[in-house]
From TrEMBL:
Taxonomy, superkingdom: Bacteria
Family matches, as Pfam families: QueT
Keyword tRNA-binding annotated: no
Native species: Neobacillus rhizophilus
Keywords: Membrane, Transmembrane, Transmembrane helix
Transmembrane intervals: 18-40, 61-78, 84-105, 112-134, 140-163
Protein name per Swiss-Prot or TrEMBL: QueT transporter family protein
Amino acid sequence: MLDAQYTTGTSSSKVREIVVNGIVAALYIAVSALIQPFGFTQVQFRVSEMFNHLVVFNKKYLYGIILGVFLTNLFFSPMKAYDLIFGVGQSLIALAITILCARFIKGIWARMIVNTLVFTFTMFLIAIELHLAFDLPFLFTWLTTAVGEFVVMAVGMPVMYFINKRVHFDKMFKF
């Protein structure tokens, strides 16, 4: 029975999926920790958000990204309760929309552009969070957080594209 598991690769591919997503989560946390003062402000230049582009290569990266966002907000956020709900929720919603859209969009660049726009638009959830927590003006806060997200995601597109040329994100879960 055990031999059949190893020859089909099911067990080892599941372990590989867990390990790869653990590495993604760890990288998200590490990069977030480096820029912590800029990641939780009204503008939110959270450089680790560029890892959101991983889902355009393979939807299985969703788990590592969400775990990274969750743990980053748990460890570093000055307003944990809000960030664990709104921050993780915004990431999950935006990633899910991107994964659904990717079915109909061919080409990595087009998918990354859509991903960038989806994450930029869904920053209204973070604006709601900051409005509730600090009574910041909703529209202005949506604008500033959306601009910060757009810049990070736009800069992240060529970065992730060229890293992919070397690392091959799309093949990371295959043997």
